Structures are given as C-alpha cells and as structure tokens.
Amino acid sequence: MDSKVLFPSVPLRTSKPSILHRTFSKLKRKFHSPISSKDVADLPCEEIGTLSPEIFASYSGPDDGLAVLRPKNQDPNDGTEKVKCYDTVAGVCSWNVKHHRAYGIACSLYDCNPITKRMVGDPFADVYAVCARHNNSILIIADGVNWGRKARLAARCAVRGCMAYLNKHLFPVSASPSNTMEIFDIMLKSFEAAQKLIVQQEGAMTTLCATVVCPLKSSSKFVTCTVNVGDSFAYCFSRSKGVVELTEGSRDVHDDRDLRDVGGALGTVNGAEPDLSNLTCSVMFVDPGDIIFLVTDGISDNFDPVVSRVARRQVSDEEEALVDADLRNVPALTPHERHMCSLKHIEEVVLRAESPSADERVSAQEVCAMVSQHVLRLTAKKREVLEDPELYRDKSEMTNDDKRVWEKEIGAKVARTPGKLDHASIVAFEVGAFEPSRHSVKEKY
Predict the structure, then answer these.
(1) Are the beta carbons of 160 and 70 closer than 8 angstroms?
(2) Which of 139, 187, 197, 209 could staple 232 via S-S, CB 3.0–4.6 A?
(3) Cβ contacts of residue 92 below 8 Å, gap of 6+?
(4) How many angstroms separate the CA atoms of 56 and 432, rounded?
(5) Residue 284 pLDDT > 90, yes or no?
C-alpha cells in the first residue's frame, strides 16, 4: 500500500496567513463554530503555545482498549485472545489512569439472549482513548465496521497506531509543532500509521476520529484540530454557547444520511486500501472549561429525533400516506432540522449534570455518564421486546404462514420502539491548563 498516494499531504507554509485567512479565523473565534475541509490548505494556520509533555490521565477502553492486541499469527480460537501489554504502549506506561477531566465510557445497547445469556453484538468493536497533559490532550475513538473479531481488531489497531504516532511526534526530543498546520501534518500521518497497523494485523474495517486540543500562542483560548473518517464524530460543549459538532463538515447535514452507511473507513475496504471519501480536517477555537467529546454512532444516531421517534422525516405528499399512524402527529423535519435538534438534545442532556452553583461546572466524566445513561434509557423498551422469552419458544408446530405473520408482528413491535441498538462509546476532555491531583475520579458514576 502506497500511503503517500492515499492520504493527503499538508502544504509547507513559509509565509504568514493571508488577510482573508486571518479575518475568517477571527470571525470563527467570535461565533464559536468549526472550520472544516477535505483540503488542509483551506484551513487557517494558527500559532500554538508550547505543548506540555506531562501526562495526568491516560485512559482507554473498553476491556483495556488499545493496550490489548492479539498477535497476528495467534489462533483466535485458542482461548487466549487477549494479550495484555504491561510495558509502555503507544508512548504511555498505563492506560488505566482516570480523571474527571479526561474520561471515557463504553456500553452495549444490544439485547441479551434470555436463554443463552449471551449479549447480541459481541465482541464489542468500539475503542476509545484519551491522553491528557497539563495544557493539551489527545482524544481518539474508533468503531469497527460490522460485527466480529476482525472488526474489533481493526478498531484497536486504529486507535493504537494513531495514538502511538501522535504521542511520539507531538512531543519529540527536538522542537515540537508550532502551528496548527504542523499538527494536522502529524495527525494525517498518524492515520497512515493506523491504516498500516490494521493491514499488518489483518484487521477488517473501522471508522476513526481523533482530536488534538492545544493552547493558542499568546492567548487564553485553545484550538482543536480534528481528523475523522467514517461516522464517528466530535463535539464541543460550551456552557454559554451550547453544543457544536466539530466534524459536521464530513457529511452534508442538509441531505438525508443512510445510518447504515459509515461514509468512509480505514482498513481493508478495497484490498489493502481504505475508503477516504469523507476524510475531513476541522479546526475550532475553544475556551477553558469547554468539554470536547468524541462518540461512535451508537451515541450520535440515538440523539437523532427521527431515531428517538419524537419526529419524522419530511416526505413528499405522495409518501405522506405511507407514514406510520403513530407518527402522523409528530413534527416532520428536514435533515438540517434533525441535525440542529440533535445538538440541542445533547445540550439538554449534558445540562442535567450541571450544579445549581455557578462555581461547579459539568465535568468530562459527567458528560460521559449523562450521555451514556440517556441512550441506555432511550433504547430500554426495544431491548425489553427482544428479550421476551416468548420469542424463543418452540415454533416447530407453527405453519410457515403463521411464522411469517408472527415475525411480521414482532418486527412491527420492535420498529415502534424508540432508539437504535448498537455499541455506544464516548470519550471526553475538559479544555484548560491543569495540574490535578492523582486519582481524581468521581466514583458515583
């Protein structure tokens, strides 16, 4: 695989940004909105402050996350699939150092078979990691496409390969990056490293989203640099400005999206080549106290008002007669309206964790907890239908026609319940320069 052909390169800038770029950047800072492009040259080049190398939190999951990787030649059925790595992994000694300002949660929304007690959708194919330092952070999340060990392996390889490259090249012994263009250059190369590791380990396909948060030079503000491929997205929660999606430039939010289409993926999409059709770079200026969080589609899709069945798609007059009777009285929304409603809904859920005291802000850990709890509650009725032991009774005496009628009734019952069953993962970081104490985790979650 010639990765230099597949992945875009970052142009070397020897002159200062143009007046247009500087004016555009000032406007974006004022209105707290992201700048996105598939061409990095279209993004503003901002000077950043010195990146501190001191780590205060490094956490990955689920099931040890990036710290677990099955050797390529090991038999997947030999009963010892997990191989824990206790030496330095991806530039960090331990990936189990939690902090309420740098946290992650993964949960399965799938149903459990009441007879075998096995969870549908296993093995868990989402992986997340956060590596937080004194004044900067790296957040990464991946979602293996489809089910199975190779999908999980692809996600683990993607997060590990990406994190290892970023930790090595953002904090070199020599000069560290001085502007956002250099950050994006390193990030795109980290995606190449992720792709190479997936192919080397014979993984399948996965989405990948990574955000680097770093301080702006001579400013109290910070900047986020995000690269994503597929349908794993990044967001920013601001107490004063609400929720903004950093990655919305990776798709057309004015057009209906097929939730089954990830849009792009790393791994063995076409032989040993990835699908980079929606690979997008985004930059946004943020303030201390803002929460940056990355999610898989098990989270983001369940905030879509159509998926949660509080709204329906806007359809033509001819299609109106086909709308379910129980949806006739809910609002009909355009794709853009659905997107804006989903952002507002995330904001409302996050604000439930806010303390009445103005001195105590919602933490990254609380954002992860509130969002995860919301999607679990939303999809509870769907699991309840599917976990009914009656579904697993002996049907040998039923005729084929009876079976078809019965299956159609169950399908309709499931379709009428809100939510989408999936693996759901979130990883978050509170923006700012901190020197926190160790083991600062709020155990109530």
Answers:
(1) no
(2) 209
(3) 55, 58, 131, 167
(4) 13
(5) yes
